[in-house]
Structures are given as structure tokens and as C-alpha cells.
Amino acid sequence: MSAYSGRGVHGQTVSTLGARIVSGEIAESDVIDLAALGQDLDVSMTALREAIKVLAAKGLVEARQKRGTYVRAREHWNLLDADVIRWRSDAGDTAAVLHDLAEVRAVVEPAAAAMAALRRDDRDLAELEAALAEMVEAVGAGAAAEVAADLRWHRALLRATHNEMLARMDVFIEPALRLRDVLVHTHSADDPVPSHAVVVDAIRLRDPDAASAAVTALLDKAAQDVAGVIDEPDERETHSE
């Protein structure tokens, strides 16, 4: 789910073509003329084919005999992929991405906090406290440090559930959470530590109801932070299949 790390011509080709697809410049079901695209981007067919492989792994394109390489329907896209999330944001879809993230977190994190309060061991608590301490140190140190500390804390929360599937939910949540954190911590001076500390206290006391309620309050605050830095649309755009 992490962003593609390719650099140079290859990485730029992946980024440019992916952005064109996600923005709708190259529409769903469109057949991609590789020769024309190669000329447009001034890249070799080898670089273009390698880029197509990367985008195919993200669910954006598919190559078939007789039909050629075409853009797949949106329902097949890996919308949890870090690059796809970034391309959606660049195309002006940030509000929708963050709205979806907020709904996913509202389903997962209060229950995870309650479970962590019941199941955590001393090592889990130590990691939550260490992540919280890192958040304290990161306040005022810049968005990058604040984002890294927040992500560490949320990973620790999920792992404290001792449920392997929940622990790996960070793979699904983290790319959009990173986008949200970068946006909020770049524009907001609010201290996120107190709301996270309340959750840690409840988990320390093994109080599942208090832990769940504290995370719900944290998520409400997160929604307010996001609303303060982006213009929410009156109605969410829907995407036809």
C-alpha cells in the first residue's frame, strides 16, 4: 500500500500516467495508445511498459490480447494505495478521501481501543506511551515529525488489540491518514497530545468503555480539524460504475 518508490524517468512516467487516469483525463474503459503516449511523454516503450506493470498492480489498467491496454473501471482500482490517494487529492478529491477515512476510522478505532484496553500487555502500553512521548516532542517541530509520531501512535493502538487482522488495518488506514495528518499539521497549531493521552490513560486502566469514548472524542476533534482546513462540498460527488 506504500507509495511507489521508482525514480527517474520510470517513476515520473508512473506518476504522470497514474494522475491522468485518476483525474479522468484518460477515462475508464479507454484504450491507451502506447505509441502515441510514449511520444507525448518522450519516453521509451520499455519505460512505458514498466510503468503499465506498476499501474496494473494498482488495479488502474489491464492489458489483453486483441483489446490492448485499457483503463479498468474504478471499482477495480486500489483506492487504498498511497499513490492513488495522492493522485485523487491532486485531482481535487481530497474532501471525499478524508470523508471516507473518517467513516472507516469511526468503525474501527473505537472498537480497537476497547479491545486494546482489555487485551494490552505491558509492552503494548510502553509502546503507546513511547509514541505519545514522541508526539509531545514533535509538537512545533514541523509537520513531518508530527505526522510520523501520530502514525506511530495509531499503529501501536491497533497492535495492542492482539488481533492480527486489526493490527494490519494500518496498511489500509495509513495512506489516507498520512494525507490527513500532513494537511492538518501543516495548517493547524492545535496540540493533538491531550486527546491521545486520554485514550492511553483509559487503556492503562483497562477501561474499555472509557477508551472507546476517548477515541470517539478524538475522531470528532479530527473531523473538526479537517473541516477547518478544507472546503467541504455541499454534497459528496458520486462516481458511477
Instruction: Give the strand content.
Output: under 5%
Shape: elongated
Query: What fold name stands as the CATH topology of the largest domain?
Result: Four Helix Bundle (Hemerythrin (Met), subunit A)
Distance between the termini: 23 Å
The CATH architecture term of the largest domain is Up-down Bundle
Structural class, please?
A: mainly alpha
Q: What is the count of distinct domains?
A: 2
Mean pLDDT: 88
Give the name of the CATH superfamily of the largest domain.
Answer: GntR ligand-binding domain-like
The Rg value, from CA coordinates, equals 20 Å
Portion of residues within helices: 55-70%
Tell me the total number of β-strands: 2
| Main sheet strand line-up | 1-2
Q: Please outline the major beta sheet.
A: 2 strands, antiparallel
Unreliable stretches, pLDDT < 50, 5 or more residues? 232-241
Q: If helices are DSSP runs of H or I spanning 4 or more residues, what is the number of helices?
A: 11
What string gives the helices and strands in order? HHHEEHHHHHHHH
Q: Provide the CATH top-level class of the largest domain.
A: Mainly Alpha
InterPro entries: GntR_C, TF_FadR/GntR_C, Tscrpt_reg_HTH_GntR, WH-like_DNA-bd_sf, WH_DNA-bd_sf
Organism: Prauserella marina
GO molecular function: DNA binding; DNA-binding transcription factor activity
Protein name: DNA-binding transcriptional regulator, FadR family
